[in-house]
Write a structure and sequence with these properties.
180 residues; 0% strand; binds heme C
Length: 180
């Protein structure tokens, strides 16, 4: 948390101190820089995966995110999961041929996870999907309709987002429930 109120009261008292003014300018510039870098950051996924095509052809979310109902982590798919359907060619798309090329090279798929909570927060998919019966889209937005890997989470896993839903549904919000 930034000591915003302390800043504001110093500003309203008039900025007499040049050192403080310089500090303030630096502070604002670093923030701006962080925003620019954040917006232009590119995410590299190994294959241009298309959610929409797979969901339309009948694949269930849990075919690829095998832990989403039963574990804390939903998990991202391994190459073996893709090969279950892609051992032989299904389309003319060269992205699909990459599945078999990566397998032939003996490598594994390394997806970049976008939605994440820091290590001091405990989150369980099983609790929310199996027990509370929430739809994936409530927390993840329109990922099922995406035709290319997103570069940022549709809905970031912020504390505000957690608390807003817990308040709506009267779920308790003791700090220790999430911070373990
Ligand atoms: C349950 C079966 C199934 C699984 C599992 C599966 N796919 Fe597919 N995939 C399909 C089918 C069916 C198509 C053809 C869809 C079409 O052309 O309409 C397809 C098409 C594709 C395409 C071409 C898409 C396009 O725009 O033409 C790519 C790339 C692809 N899959 C990658 C993957 C990757 C990577 C995985 C693993 C994370 C995976 N698939 C897992 C069934 C599957
Ligand atoms: C055939 C496999 C497959 C199916 C079926 C599938 N996904 Fe995915 N999912 C992936 C892959 C591969 C990625 C990583 C690349 C990407 O984001 O496109 C991913 C990424 C995601 C992410 C982003 C995780 C993060 O890092 O933030 C979410 C959320 C997600 N999927 C939800 C769903 C939901 C909801 C469904 C069902 C409507 C679904 N997926 C169906 C393979 C699949
Ligand atoms: C109550 C909100 C919520 C619901 C409902 C939810 N997720 Fe998530 N999801 C999250 C959060 C928070 C994370 C980040 C977890 C972490 O960092 O450990 C996440 C992460 C993921 C990831 C990244 C990989 C991983 O193992 O964490 C995938 C994939 C994913 N979710 C898929 C799904 C699918 C599929 C469903 C529906 C079956 C679903 N989620 C339902 C909040 C939710
Ligand atoms: C869309 C609504 C929604 C969102 C968003 C959501 N939750 Fe929840 N959460 C619930 C519901 C409903 C329950 C009650 C489940 C049950 O009946 O046990 C719950 C329960 C929990 C519990 C168990 C509470 C206990 O009894 O000890 C934890 C921990 C938790 N959520 C953490 C999180 C975290 C961390 C996030 C954000 C990353 C989050 N939740 C986001 C709806 C949500
Ligand atoms: C429903 C889950 C949930 C509850 C309850 C919750 N938090 Fe959090 N908290 C989170 C998540 C998720 C994050 C990480 C994402 C973020 O920073 O927004 C977080 C981050 C934080 C951070 C770090 C902020 C930062 O800038 O790094 C602090 C401090 C914090 N929480 C304090 C608290 C306190 C104090 C309480 C009790 C009054 C509390 N939290 C209750 C989910 C929760």
């Amino acid at each position: 948390m930034r000591p915003l109120s302390a800043f504001l009261s110093r500003i309203t008292r008039g900025v007499r101190n040049r050192a403080f003014l310089a500090f303030l300018v630096c502070f604002l510039l670093t923030d701006l820089l962080a925003i620019v870098i954040g917006a232009s950051r590119t995410v590299h996924q190994p294959i241009a995966f298309n959610h929409s095509k797979h969901v339309e052809s009948g694949a269930a979310c849990t075919d690829c995110h095998t832990g989403a109902q039963t574990q804390a982590n939903a998990t991202l798919p391994t190459l073996a999961t893709c090969l279950g359907c892609h051992e032989t060619q299904l389309s003319q798309n060269p992205e699909e041929a990459k599945v078999r090329a990566i397998a032939a090279s003996g490598q594994e798929l390394r997806w970049t996870q976008l939605t994440r909570v820091p290590a001091h927060v405990y989150f369980s998919h099983r609790r929310h999907v199996q027990i509370a019966q929430l739809d994936c889209a409530e927390c993840h937005g329109p990922v099922a309709k995406s035709t290319a890997p997103p570069v940022a989470a549709f809905r970031p896993a912020t504390m505000d987002n957690c608390l807003a839903c817990h308040a709506r549904r009267s779920v308790k919000t003791d700090c220790n429930d999430c911070h373990r």
